[in-house]
Amino acid sequence: MSEEEKIRRMAEFRTILEKRVREMKIELEGLQALLGLLDEALLEKGFRRAEITKPIPPAPPPSGAPPRIPEALPSPPATPLRTVTSDLLANLYIGEDSMRVVPAEGLAFNVNTPPFSSFLVERVLAKMQEKDREAAERGELTPEEILSYNITREGDIIREITIRNVTPERSRELKSAVLWTLEKMYEKTMRTDA
Question: Considering its fold, how many domains does the chain have in total?
Fold first, then answer.
């Protein structure tokens, strides 16, 4: 085979590779879009109603009686988050505008286990926070009303997730997203332990 023939064949091969790379990029974009749609569908299908507890104001003291010293408000009741096989994953505490997730005793959820960071933090919490910031810039929210979250860790192990400025509309979505995330993390943990 002559040198000219080799160069011509390499140029043809390069054209074929370029075309294949373009096709694969389009396929990858399509797969990523499908994955995003599936995540959204899972969130919608996984919704379970979360009870929002509001403290009941104490009854006014009878006239002439000394004023009552208010007791500390009780913490909201825990909503257990369970797998389909009823294994306890965490307890969810829903307040008037906040939410706390406390993993179950004996479970060590690592922040590096997917889909914690990629889904719950980046696609759910950070996106909600970003939308609130945009709403604040438009004057629809005050900066104090922007959703905020804190992940309390011991090393890489999640001890508690606290989310503040949770609207009732978002409460269900967040509960569902947390449950789905913990289920997936639990499955991965169980597979590695087995």
Answer: 2
Domain-located, residue 71: no
Nearest partner of 113 among 156, 76, 78, 147, judged by Cα? 156
Q: How far from each other are the two terminal CA atoms of the chain, in whole angstroms?
A: 57
Q: Quote the tokens at residue 32.
A: 């990523």
Shared domain check, 84 and 19: no
**How many alpha carbons lie under 13 Å from residue 102 in its C-beta half-sphere?**
9
**CA nearest 160: which of 113, 122, 107?**
107
Expressed in percent and rounded to 5, the helix, strand and coil fractions of the chain are: 50, 20, 35
Q: What is the pLDDT of residues 42-77, one digit of tens each?
A: 666 654 333 333 344 444 544 554 444 444 445 567
Residues in the chain, pLDDT under 50 = 47-59, 61-62, 65-73
Domain range holding 41? 1-45
